[in-house]
Design goal:
- The complex is a heterodimer of chains A (213) and B (336).
- Chain A contains ten helices and no strands.
- Chain A has helices at residues 2-31, 38-67, 70-98, 103-112, 114-131, 135-141, 143-149, 151-166, 172-186, 190-212.
- The relative contact order of chain A is 0.09.
- Chain B is α+β, with helices and mostly antiparallel strands and 336 residues long.
- Helices cover 22% and strands 19% of the residues of chain B.
- Chain B contains nine helices and twelve strands.
- Classes of the chains: A mainly alpha (213), B alpha+beta (336).
- Chain A binds chain B through residues 30-33, 36-40, 97-100, 102, 105, 108-109, 112-116, 165-166, 168-172, and chain B through 11-13, 16, 59, 93-94, 97-98, 106, 108-109, 158-159, 161, 204, 206-207, 274, 277-278, 293, 296-298, 300-301, 303, 305, 308-310.
């Protein structure tokens, strides 16, 4: 019990640190002139962090389903919101810093280039999810809240497509990320979840029996 | 002591870019003055006392910037501080610190470190195929045989970033005249060294090594096409393609093949590494062309290293006057 309380208190702090330290390092690097192609570096980094956090937030539910780690669920929202923060930064850097709000160049880049279009779509989907992440919205939406938030699966897939389409040649890295995302989505598939549940019960009861003997 | 509010201090990247701008203005003024004197042809030969330049000089100090703008060039040296359009040279540190050299790594800021022990001497370049006088040229002989000149060229990467680099080298045409291509020769096929022991990136088997590039013979004969052996008045560093590389400024950077070991004159159009990797995305010609987008991203604008924001990409990277006639009657959307 004590251990659980400790986990409950320290894990969110670790998530805050883990999510904000890369931002601090990035900003320091930017203002310290450490990057030769600073805008590209900021764009790549924020995109990468957004993807990492999105994957972590998608891992929370399966961790609970398969291992019964309830603490993971309590971190899910925070991870998702940080993913959104980096996605928003990523988008703002692209629009503001990179293209300097030049609508002519921007509309060409966003609407004529498929990688930008899927990235933009993924961001647009994340937007209502971030807004409705509060307890109040959860109550107001009731059962629909869960339905709405399932859209994050679509976002994750779009982000992978975005990644695959923007690399110059070698798509090995985006495919690795893609495999992780697909794996995390498969774990949510009802038959798999059911199987995991029964396996857990079986293990729990055998452990109990073992301790009785 | 006078207190200065943090908000009143100019951020470094801003004052740096301002300084660069001022250098550009100074250089422009100087070059205008020079051309007015009719001295433009008397381009000084590349400096040879590179030892005195203090390799790896880090951030340029304000004092030395002032010197660049008004008095004499600061090492590492270039005789002119801007291109013909008046834009300032890219920092030496950026030119040697930001390199696409996949034989070492796909990380542009990692190539310098991973290539630092690369042996570019001794080195030979084999020139053969459909020529009357094939030969194996030692790099030192190449350097001696052909008069090296300084050329200030824009480099535009297909990834939409660009630099301005003062190369030293000689026109490829001079080497070609020496080996005498036969009438059957239509193309050149260039090959980079393949040495897995010193090039860790060759383990990446998503590409068909060695790196191959090609040019049409008339493109190779164009006066802009350079075999470079140095930049900023020094010999090339490994990450920039030591000891000898191609520079074709009106084409995307990947055409300018590095660390050349072999040049063959051939009849058929060679298949470059990038053409083999993604034929729908990288063509043989790869001319810088803002009207013909890469299938997946726009080529209409670019980021100049050292600047924030974007600038419009120029047709043939601003060299249309010199090279557009090479492609008369060709549909550049088809021959991208």
């Amino acid at each position: 019990m004590k251990r659980n309380n400790l986990l409950k208190k320290t894990l969110p702090v670790l998530v805050h640190i883990g999510a904000l330290v890369p931002l601090a390092i990035m900003l320091w690097g930017f203002f310290d002139n450490q990057f030769i192609n600073p805008i590209q570096e900021l764009t790549f980094r924020t995109g990468r962090y957004a993807l990492h956090l999105l994957i972590l937030s998608l891992a929370c539910t399966p961790l609970n389903t398969f291992f019964g780690w309830r603490w993971a669920i309590s971190l899910r929202k925070m991870l998702g919101l940080y993913a959104f923060m980096y996605a928003a930064l990523h988008f703002s850097i692209f629009v503001g810093l990179d293209y300097g709000f030049n609508w002519e160049l921007l509309s060409e880049a966003i609407f004529e280039k498929r990688y930008a279009l899927v990235g933009f779509t993924a961001f647009l989907i994340l937007l209502p999810l971030a807004i409705t992440s509060t307890k109040g919205w959860m109550k107001r939406l009731g059962r629909n809240w869960k339905r709405l938030h399932r859209l994050v699966y679509l976002t994750a897939l779009l982000v992978i497509v975005h990644f695959i389409w923007l690399v110059k040649g070698d798509i090995q890295r985006p495919l690795i990320y893609g495999a992780v995302v697909v794996f995390l989505l498969i774990l949510r598939w009802p038959p798999i979840r059911k199987w995991a549940g029964s396996l857990r019960r079986l293990l729990a009861s055998s452990a109990k029996n073992a301790s009785l003997i | 002591m006078i207190k200065i509010k943090a908000s009143e201090i100019t951020p470094e990247h801003l004052y740096r870019s301002r300084r660069r701008f001022m250098v550009g203005v100074g250089a422009l003024a100087a070059s205008v003055a020079l051309s007015a004197c009719g001295a433009e042809d008397a381009t000084p030969s590349p400096t040879t006392n590179a030892a005195a330049s203090g390799e790896g000089t880090s951030a340029v100090t304000p004092a030395s910037i002032g010197a660049t703008a008004t008095q004499e060039p600061v090492p590492p040296t270039a005789s002119i501080q801007s291109d013909e359009l008046g834009d300032a040279l890219t920092d030496y540190e950026s030119v040697i610190g930001y390199n696409n050299y996949y034989e070492f790594t796909t990380k542009k800021e990692g190539a310098a470190k991973l290539s630092q022990n690369f042996q570019s001497s001794p080195w030979t370049v084999e020139v053969g195929g459909l020529v009357n006088k094939p030969g194996v040229y030692d790099i030192d002989d190449l350097r001696k045989k052909f008069t090296r000149q300084e050329r200030i060229y824009r480099l535009r990467c297909v990834e939409a970033w660009s630099m301005i680099i003062p190369w030293t080298g000689f026109p490829l045409a001079e080497l070609l005249k020496e080996v005498e291509p036969t009438s059957k020769a239509k193309y050149l096929r260039f090959e980079t060294l393949y040495d897995p022991d010193s090039m860790p990136g060759l383990k990446n088997n998503s590409y068909q090594w060695p790196y191959i590039e090609g040019l049409r013979v008339d493109e190779a004969m164009n006066n802009l096409t350079l075999l470079a052996t140095g930049l900023y008045g020094k010999d090339l560093l490994p990450q920039n393609g030591a000891p000898v590389r191609l520079v074709v400024p009106w084409k995307y950077g990947f055409k300018s093949i590095k660390s050349i070991v072999k040049i063959d004159l051939v009849e058929e159009m060679p298949v470059s590494l990038w053409m083999a990797a993604a034929p729908h995305e990288y063509g043989f010609y790869a001319n810088v062309n803002p009207q013909v987008d890469h299938p997946r991203w726009s080529q209409g604008s670019e980021r100049r290293i050292g600047e924030l924001g974007r600038r419009k990409t120029l047709m043939f990277n601003g060299y249309a006057e010199e090279v557009a006639s090479l492609y008369d009657g060709m549909d550049l959307t088809e021959y991208f």
